[in-house]
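Our consortium's second objective concerns turning raw sequence data into structural hypotheses that experimental partners can test. To show how far this objective has progressed, the report includes one record in full. It was chosen at random from the queue rather than selected for favorable results. The single chain below, 180 residues long, was entered without modification.
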Amino acid sequence: METVLINKQKKANQLINILAAVIPITVAVLLGVRQKVDLGNWTTYLPHINGIINSLTAILLIAGLYFIRQKNVSAHRLAMLSAFTLGSVFLITYVLYHLANESTAFGGEGWIRPVYYFLLISHIVLSVLVVWFVLRALYFALSGQHQQHRQVVKWAYPIWLYVSITGVVVYLMIKPYYMH
């Protein structure tokens, strides 16, 4: 019986590691496509929708922390699964936007420019790293491995919250430069 559990754990770890590598690589490749695909004008609204998604994700993450501190496991689970779902939707809409539209350049000048690029670069780097942590946290939670879940969440939660909040801040900073 223990061998079966170890094999399941190994397979889950392999899948998490593969997904944590394949997702950012796939996004990078898709973003690198220079020939844009005509998906329609509706895609120009996706950055605004993504700003809302990141805002809701941050709220859900904070709510999830609140609920678990109140020992309300079912509300915590709902908040965190909702945050994970929104993160998945964000990923799809982000890729769709960039497949159909050129990237928007930041037009700010002076001291705000390095602030924007610091936030953007840290957001991007941590958004790549957080995938592995979030997938592990989700796996441990769903498989009932609560101690391992808590250990991973010590890293996953603050990174994920930072990525969600900086996603909103970066969106608000670049919003004036989007064309319609």
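The partners drew two points from this record. The chain has one domain: 2-32+42-177. Residues 2-32+42-177 form one domain. Both points have been shared with the crystallography group to help prioritize constructs.
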